[in-house]
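Lab meeting, item 3. Inverse folding demo.
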């Protein structure tokens, strides 16, 4: 009799716990499904959500920058009949009030994987680039750049602004600096005090012209002078015709010999995808940050029977094919030149060939070739933005 009573007591206590575990697993599955749908790439979206059971009431906590994902999560939870409390923090953080926008204030801002100067360099952003500020900790801002990339920049790298200030910036006459490297000076004289260094793609407000210089203003209000032969009216540059393959290759060759830098995305130093991204940016086109993201942009080029279908400017992707036990991995990208040659950043920016008889043939790259994608001809389609239609550069983010 005692054994029977013990068994009944065990079942009474065990099955409710089992049911609770089953329900929690169901909710965890909902969270995973929402994350896979709305934030499949943690580099471009935040959906860090956990759940715990507090006496039959689910408590959701964490953070996200995706309002739609959060709404869909709670819609699913309600449909399943669960009671819950919402402690998920929405980003941008409320501490910023209306200053959730920013402008890069250095020639090149270093953007890192974690909020520390010793952290891995994830990417870079150029002077005048608009960003969204998500949160701040330990002197670093978590920001999102126009290619949707999310990482940390130190607080000297950007100037926080509100929407009115962003609109003022966007409506101001600006110039884009197109020399690979140079300086802004305190007077219209290159022997005067330097105010800042500059690099290709930097954007500044134009105040006026004096002699052979443009008088410019930085996002933080600094006034300086830049040799006007290196400056082009930003709107004229923005609205020029779409580049040809030859123009892309000319831009790419201008960075020949530039050193490889992991995370580098400027004329000062580039990694493989930072190189392709920089070259296309200098021609008014926004590519994603990493090679494994860029491979999802543009139009597939048929290379099943060789490389005859390739055009100058096409992106070549390298890596490891999928196997029965591993997924495909894209690890490298370059730009096709023509005649089986491509230019890429590997050690430095250099040219190699897919032709086995060429002096610059790379067997490693040929054996690791995965596919090619065409960007030119697909601007503002197939996941490829022009700067003039990118929401960040339009101030509509």
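The presenter then showed the designed sequence:
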């Amino acid at each position: 009799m005692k054994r029977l009573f013990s068994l009944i007591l065990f079942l009474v206590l065990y099955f409710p716990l089992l049911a609770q575990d089953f329900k929690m697993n169901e909710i965890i599955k909902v969270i995973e499904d929402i994350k896979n749908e709305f934030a499949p790439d943690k580099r471009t979206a935040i959906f860090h959500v956990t759940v715990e059971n507090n006496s039959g009431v689910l408590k959701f906590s964490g953070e996200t920058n995706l309002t739609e994902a959060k709404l869909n999560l709670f819609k699913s939870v309600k449909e399943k009949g669960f009671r819950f409390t919402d402690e998920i923090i929405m980003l941008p953080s409320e501490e910023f009030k209306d200053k959730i926008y920013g402008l890069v204030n250095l020639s090149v801002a270093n953007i890192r994987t974690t909020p520390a100067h010793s952290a891995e360099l994830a990417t870079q952003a150029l002077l005048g680039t608009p960003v969204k500020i998500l949160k701040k900790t330990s002197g670093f801002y978590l920001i999102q750049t126009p290619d949707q990339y999310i990482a940390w920049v130190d607080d000297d790298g950007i100037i926080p602004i509100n929407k009115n200030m962003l609109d003022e910036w966007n409506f101001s006459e600006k110039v884009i600096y197109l020399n690979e490297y140079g300086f802004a000076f305190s007077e219209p004289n290159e022997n005067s005090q330097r105010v800042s260094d500059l690099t290709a793609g930097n954007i500044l407000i134009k105040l006026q012209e004096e002699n052979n210089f443009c008088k410019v203003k930085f996002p933080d209000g600094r006034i300086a002078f830049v040799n006007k032969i290196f400056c082009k009216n930003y709107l004229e540059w923005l609205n020029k015709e779409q580049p040809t393959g030859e123009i892309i290759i000319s831009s790419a060759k201008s960075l020949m010999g530039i050193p490889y830098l992991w995370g580098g995305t400027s004329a000062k130093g580039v990694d493989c995808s930072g190189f392709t991204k920089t070259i296309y940016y200098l021609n008014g086109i926004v590519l994603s940050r990493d090679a494994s993201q860029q491979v999802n942009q543009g139009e597939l080029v048929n290379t099943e029977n060789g490389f005859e279908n390739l055009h100058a400017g096409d992106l070549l992707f390298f890596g490891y094919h999928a196997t029965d036990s591993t997924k495909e991995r894209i690890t490298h990208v370059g730009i096709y030149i023509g005649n089986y040659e491509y230019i890429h950043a590997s050690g430095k920016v250099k040219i190699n060939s897919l032709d086995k008889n060429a002096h610059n043939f790379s067997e490693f790259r040929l054996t690791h070739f995965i596919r090619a994608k065409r960007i030119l001809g697909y601007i503002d389609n197939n996941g490829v933005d022009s700067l003039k239609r990118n929401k960040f550069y339009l101030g509509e983010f």
